[in-house]
Design goal:
The protein is an all-alpha fold. It is built from 10 helices and no strands.
């Protein structure tokens, strides 16, 4: 319905087709009508524009999913910190891991610094100091995911090692 139309102006096709026995409703009357009464286009648009209605059960599921995701990230971050010495010594595809992390985690200047290091151990130390540790749980989880992509056997070996 044209928003500039007056309250007694023309009705939408939906309104006139579903008008109740009490006669056609104006915009003002429709706004105060019960949910079972006909709605104007403006009312329908505002109802759908606010998005789908959620229930407490939906919110609980969303909250549970968010908690589960936080838990997964925390486990990954803990693994990366607990196995820091072994990862520093044993990761060989450091630049592939750095590339997987991308610009969102590794600043271009840090990328150049890591790439300039002569050994993978020095590259890993720089990566930990500049990105993994200061980036917190999210950076550590992203680092874990990148390691899983490029060196899954190493992560499996560390996970199976006694005392972990």
């Amino acid at each position: 319905m044209d928003p500039s139309a007056s309250a007694s102006g023309p009705q939408t096709m939906d309104q006139s087709a579903s008008a109740s026995a009490s006669g056609p409703q104006t915009m003002d009357q429709s706004a105060s009508a019960s949910a079972s009464g006909p709605q104007t286009m403006d009312q329908s648009a505002s109802a759908s524009a606010s998005g789908p209605q959620t229930t407490d059960a939906d919110n609980d599921l969303t909250s549970e999913a968010m908690d589960a995701e936080k838990s997964r990230k925390s486990r990954k971050a803990l693994f990366v910190m607990q196995h820091r010495p072994q990862l520093t010594q044993r990761v060989s595809a450091v630049m592939a891991v750095v590339d997987s992390l991308g610009d969102s985690w590794v600043h271009p200047e840090i990328y150049v610094e890591i790439n300039a290091k002569k050994t993978s151990m020095k590259q890993m130390k720089t990566l930990y100091i500049s990105t993994v540790v200061p980036g917190g749980t999210n950076a550590r989880a992203a680092f874990y995911d990148a390691l899983m992509e490029h060196q899954p056997h190493l992560l499996a070996d560390l996970a199976e090692a006694p005392g972990t």
